[in-house]
Amino acid sequence: MREYSRLIHFESAGETFFADFPAAETALSIGISVRAHKIFEEWIKNENPLEVVVEKLLPPLPRSDLPIYCVGLNYRSHAKEAKLNVPMNPPVWSKPCASLASPEEEISMSRYCASNFPDWEGELVFVTSRECRDVTPDEAESCILGYTIGNDLSCRIFQMAEQNAGQFFYAKAFDKFAPIGPVLVSPDVFRVDENTKLTTRVNGQIMQDTQIARDRIFSPAQVLSFMSQSTTIPAYTAVMTGTPAGVGAFMKPKRFLRHNEVVEVQISGIGILRNKIVFPEEIRLADKPPEIKLDIIPSSYWDVMVSPELVEMTSTL
């Protein structure tokens, strides 16, 4: 693998390109000109470079046709707010590749998703550099291509036991529910230390704010090692590594995403992943969460996740 600083994946004139964008250069923005390659393998070998203009950023992944792995309860603060025990092993599930979304992309939620308590989860993401199976944590370190940022968007109602037996996949697997970006930073450049912070803002308001090293339970290498036991993990797989405290479902009162809100996930040393949430016209409510049919919600759900303010709302859907 070639040495690099920050990998970007982008569109220009209807084609896609990969480029190394060193941190020492000018700020990454649409309209800049970079030395890029059409094919990732050409980027690795530094063959056939072209000077092109960045028109639209894409997820900084060599492949977009792989499932995205996710980890739950990997931050002590999140386990505490959820009133759950810290697990012995990281809970793992996946999102389909159709969940992938680009940095700065508008996330157009369907009526179905917008009306079932959409929530944010800012996360550190790593991407594998090669196929691996049965690796130790030490071996896993050499299997990581780089680090980026993700937002594990979730429709909270479908995480309840009464709805889907408590499993996570369905609640998180909707189209465009995995924004990732804006850059993939080399392990030679980015390392989590005591100063590395993860911050999530919704319309500028800080919702999540933690020092990753102090809060995190399992490191990326430990996560990858656990995932790979008796399981082949393909090269260029993206893995979301969990979220800290501050998700809307556990706020008092509860707080869910609304139409036209902008979610920003920032990790020091990587950058900011930014996406606007867009609801269908019939449920675009600027000042309160989406209203839903109360008769589809089991009574125990309200005790765990939903605020009294929502219970009192009159259904319009």
From TrEMBL:
The keyword Metal-binding applies. Keywords: Metal-binding. Residues 68-278 form the Fumarylacetoacetase-like C-terminal domain. Coiled coil: none annotated. Transmembrane segments: none annotated. GO terms for molecular function: acetylpyruvate hydrolase activity; metal ion binding; oxaloacetate tautomerase activity. The keyword Nucleotide-binding does not apply. GO terms for biological process: oxaloacetate metabolic process. Pfam families: FAA_hydrolase. Belongs to the FAH family. This is Fumarylacetoacetase-like C-terminal domain-containing protein.
